[in-house]
## 1
Amino acid sequence: MPLLIENLHKHYGELEVVRGISLQLQPGECFALLGPNGAGKTTTLRCVLGHTEPSAGSIELCGLPVPARAREARAKVGVVPQSDSLDPDFTVTENLLTFARYFGLSREAAQARVPELLTFAGLEAKAEAKVPALSGGMKRRLTMARALVADPDLLIMDEPTTGLDPQARHLIWDRLKGLIAQGKTIFLTTHFMDEAERLAHRIAILDRGQIIAMGTPREVIAAHIEPQVVEVFGEWAGHEGGAAAWAAAHAGEYAQRFEVSGETAFCYLEHPEALLAHLAAQGGLRTLHRPANLEDVFLKLTGREMRDE
Amino acid sequence: MSKLLVPLDLSPRRALSVWRRNADVWRRLAIPSLLGNLADPLIYLLGLGLGLGALLPQVHGVSYISFLATGTVAFSTMNAATFEALYSGYARAHQQKTWEAIMNAPLSLDDVMAGEWLWAATKSLFSGGAILIVISLFGLVPWTHALAALPLVFLTGLCFAGIGYIATALAPGYDFFMYWFTLFISPMAMLCGVFFPLEQLPAFVQGAALVLPLGHAIGAIRPLLLSGATDGLWLHVLVLSAYALIGMAVARALMRRRLLR
């Protein structure tokens, strides 16, 4: 099994950052760990890689106990950290060759591997470019290629697309899909719900150090939320208070559940027809009707209040 | 305290790959780096040695420039090791996150620190070695003595890099290193006999050279270079090794606390 976590706890003094996480990855699956800032995602990854000692619980990475044999286990894992840690003094190719040496690859084996990795990263034309000359998306792709240098079965990625523009993000997703198709196991953290919904076979939502939902994206949505969402916003003709006032007066009649956040009323329900007909008769109010997604579940389970870093 | 006692997790081969990474980066800047390492001490050596030396009688039975040159070997080695451990070490450990990236590969913090430590000592060997070449070419010391001093130069590098990593582990930023230089490195240069014999200082200050590592580096290197004398060498080697190892052990515990928490 690529990864097995049982009842993981991690606390710093009084502060308990991870509170009893258990999960297991199946070979070949893409598993996404979702959570707001400070939920414990990065700490979990650090424990998994043996970079910090768990306060309690057990971890098995690629069949080896961590942290006891973390070094051996990491030889079979590719890691894409959240922050850019490429070597600015080296070219693209040199970054790959230097990293290959850390894994004990011979110079010949490493050099034979470079063209394939450059193609994967779409950096053939940048092979001799220095790292500072690369764009953010290129750097992230190079970091991914670097993680693949020893051809690992398991890839661990901490927020692989944070800070990238949509084009660069889609390109990363494309590469990730390619890796999944090759049969690699991927364990990633993200706070982009669309990313998880698109890529992950299974997800877990982490909040305040605990897993509060786990399953396929469809399962999690079905288990936690009504299938349809109608967002209502704007002025309500002839009434004070706009969408919020409308929701207080009528949302409960039509929606199984609703909440008002700022200027918008979110109505969650199974059959939206009656609500939509009612809204069409109201002047001024604007509506957005869509199927429920992971983001709705996430917000329902973790709340809408801001989380600071 | 408990972090001092964590068992060593060291793979020499992996540690060497960290050394090689740093050597690869250095290679492309080798010429300016060596020139920089040489120019500064040589300016002092020629300026003070010839200018000030002309006013001075012999010091300890040798010309002032020879006296100064032999102290400069230890002084430059200390500076090179300290700069590498502090500024370059900080960049790799914290700012560029080079260590973090390496530790995602099958390397432990001990591998990384061992490779870095060896590298800092190697670089200081280049620096001290370059000065040895120049002063033996000038005929200030016999080249056989210069060759014999190389292991001591390397040990001096290990010593100052070892204690230097304590500063690197504690530093919140580069500015912090000013304290290290102002409170530790610069006073040592004055107290340990780089520029003038210790006997010129009041007796109570002379004791400082007995405990400060630069005093022992000079105590070991200068007599060997000037006359091939090795009396009391073992004590200097012992003290330098102790500084190196204890410094490294403390730095390791502090780095574990900072990077592996």
Note: The radius of gyration of chain B is 19 Å.
## 2
Amino acid sequence: MALAEFVDATTEKKQTTEAVLELQEVSVLYSGKAAVKKVSCTIWRNRITAIIGPSGCGKSTLLRSLNRMNDFVDGVTIEGQILFAGQNLYGEAVDPVEVRRRIGMVFQKPNPFPKSIYNNISWGPSINGYSGSMDELVERSLQQAALWEEVKDRLQESALNLSGGQQQRLCIARALAMEPQVLLMDEPCSALDPISTAHIEDLMFELQSRYTMVIVTHNMQQAARVSDYTAFMEMGNLIEFGETDQIFTRPEKKRTEEYVTGRFG
Amino acid sequence: MSDFTPNTGLSFSIHKGVTRWGETAIKFWLGSCTALSLFTTAAIVVLLLVESFDFFMAVSPIDFFFGTRWVPLLKPSSYGVLPLLWGTMQITIGAALIAIPLGLASAIYLSEYASNQVRAWIKPILELLAGIPTVVYGYFALTFVTPMLRHVVPDIQVFNALSAAIVVGIMILPTIATLSDNALRAVPDSLRQAAYAIGATSYEVTTSIVVPAGLSGVMASFLLAISRAIGETMAVTLAAGQTPNLSLGMLGSIETMTAYIVQISIGDTPSGSIAYQTLFAVAALLFFITLMINVISQWILGRFREVYD
């Protein structure tokens, strides 16, 4: 691809997108102590946004505040606003259960339910009143997660018999079955081997056309490979946010440059 | 021991045949303690079997296991154990009907809904219930529960199966609540998070994910509590009476296997008589039933345990 074409393509990519999540001075406090400090940025539709930074920088905490998973932690308070399709996620009238139906999550360690492969996928839609064909939904979700071919003949087997990489793809399929608008991924590959990691990364590329994704990773190569936008955090502060290409090649902040070139972290 | 010389090159000397006598003595002492409890159990089993064997030489096992009249002390005597077995079952079933729903509900509350502070208060109090002497429960049944029940069913007898079943239910409730709570809390948090993250409510997470995942421990707690109800003696002796009774109603006096054992043990039944030997036959049956339940609960724990890492 010629450079001009490439620039055109990225420009076009930028133009067709809209804001899905808008973070406005978001702080997350544990018993009054700030783990995330006044972070503002925008998550764009059908783009992959990576959050990178050293351990303890608040990147997972920030991610979990995007679908109110921090509600389960004692003593947590959120300041600022997170607008999802224009509505504050932490508004008084907002039902957190509803938020999590629209904004799905995949965790660091694969956590399939101790149920069959089929029921791992079907449970979420069934408790949420899904009325279409469950068989189709299960098949479609597993296909989207690139797992269908491997498990189609043993859907009734326990999900715990799958390998770690398969379990993680099952967890992605489980999240996709809810047809969420955003998929949050909290270091989804950190417990996986390189081949399974490559599988998941390929999967993210394929899902990009339909889903908005936010991925937390401590693996900079992964962020560079998969994401369109990158947020670099340190000590709870958002140091720099921009297109991945720019963050990794022409960072504006010295700290970002030091981190992406491996001088610390 | 060899002298220890650091950093002067690699050396390792083998002392063959070094015996540490202190170590040996301690091992022997600890082993003996274990052996003592094993020996005691074995001795009880042997005693029960030998004495019951004598009993079954005099009374046909068919009459014992299928007979419907238990009149061991009066002529004409009859040794059908069913009324005693039924008495025990009435208490056990009644207690289980009370304790299982309440205990499981308490466990779910403690494990899934209560804050850590609330749990830190409630659990010790619940465990305290388990420390109340059972004779107190019996007295409580007699002087409080039965008079209360009389307001509802006026023709209830002073000694009745219902009030005994109620207090035994209260008695085994902490066992179910604390053991089930432990089982539910052993379910990894990652499963709860996974469920919440696809838009489940607390109730859905609890009933569809947590309880099924902790089911083996929950079932084992039920069986352990049931086995305790079967073996419960003092409360039922005080509250349920000493009248072997094969009828359905729980408003009258009955007699459980354990209460019968108390009755004979403190009575003046001459040793060696058949009436005296019934003690061992009933005790052997009781032992066998509780043993079976414990074996089953161990099997459930092992068989259905989900392995989480």
Note: Chain A has one domain: 3-260.
